[in-house]
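Cross-posted from the bioinformatics board.
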Amino acid sequence: MSEPNAVVRVSGIHKTFRVSGGVTTALAGIDLEINQGEFVSLIGPSGCGKSTLLRLIGDLTQPSAGSVIVNGKPADRARRDRDYGIVFQAPVLFDWRTVEENVRLPLELLGMSRSKREERSREMLALVELADFARHYPYQLSGGMQQRVSIARALALEPAILLMDEPFGALDEMTRERMNSEVLRIWEKTGTTVVFVTHSIPEAVFLSSRVVVMSARPGRITRVIEIDVARPRTFETREDRRYFERITDVREALRGHSGEDPTGLDRAAAEGVT
Amino acid sequence: MRWPGRWQDTLLRYLPAVAVFVAVLAAWELAGSSTVLPRPSAIGSALVENWSSGRWPLFEAARNTLTEALIGLGLGTMLGVLTGAAVARWATARDAVLPIAIAANAVPIIAFAPIMNLWFGATNPLSKAAIAAVLVFFPIFINVVRGLSAVDPAAIELMRAFAASEGAILRKVRIPTALPYFLTGLKVSTTLCLIGAIVGEYFGGASDVIGRVVVQSASALRWDVTWAAILFGAVAGIALYLVVVGIERVVIPWHASVRGEEAR
């Protein structure tokens, strides 16, 4: 049932890690397709392998078995073609570069001309509404602003796919909600495909077109929930009945699995999810 | 009421240090004697008398010693950076070099001064520069290794996601990360290279250097000259240190250590 316009096609992924005293299975039998322009969140308890799955898609780690196809080519090829933008939980800005120089980093690596780099970094900073801070150093910005710089940097190459690994996990609730609206605005404007890892159910539901619910030990996909909440999603969305229903769906999907788990270990893990 | 401006801030900040310094000088002037502890005024006039003439031309001596120290600083820094970079880059180099370097650092390097005199010749400035170089090597080496290893793994991962080459990662991430560490090592080294040169001179060699002036004026009981020579050494050390602080301000203005000084 392959969609013709799948940007990401993950099939039969297994991932094991060698640890002291044996081997742990991080991911077991993962199949997932993500289409052009989708916003897909991966959610699940700690240890369910959601970050590992994201890193597999981005070719930052390799599967033990199975394949990852991005833009119709193997993930390592896609990475070398610079099809990815990536945002981590920490902004990972370089202290010695100003805001605009940080945004230009991937453009320099691509060998883009200086004038083009300057033009592009200006556009990107305007997109994340930080044009006035172009000449500032990262230490002069708040955490939320730093993360916006890192988003601008990730989008500078107009990547086919934007990978975000708990990008707002370190921010306070208010900033986080503001950043959520921000990211949606940027997504709607750029049309980039987004894969978003999060611990937060409301965040996943608010942002996504689909939420992929995962369970731990071993990490697998238990349910994929379509989020049919109307767009554009605004402040009012957070009070929408359907929004709450989908939140309940995701929460039950996260719990649901523990019903089959006689040890109750997964329930404990699932409750770690906020 | 008016808030103090920047100029007044600076003045207020240094006022306690200046006051203590002046008080110590005053007490010294009162308590001093001509033998055990020459008065600051006596040291001052010895300094003026022997600036570039007399038996101990101090300025010449300071210039020669500083030259030795700087050659040592240059050599030691070069060796430290090269070995440090190799150790940070290749695990085999680390296993081979690191234990030896740590053991070598425990050796009192100064004790080798007579041997350096034998190797390079006592009157050859290189015999003093060599001691300075060995002293400088270790802090540079260790700081370069630490700096090159202090890179945020997420930064490397980010560069990989952008398909950056190893060379680009070195230029754009590893070297800028290592710079503040290197400069810290360099600051420590400015004092060490002078210590190396002057102590090396104690073990013999040409007489127109700070170390020889200290030894000879002391044996001639001209303690005022001895103190004046020490003062020259101190000023040279402070000047070298300030040069590196200046370099820091230009090269790593974004770093917390530099920022902190401006914000305080």
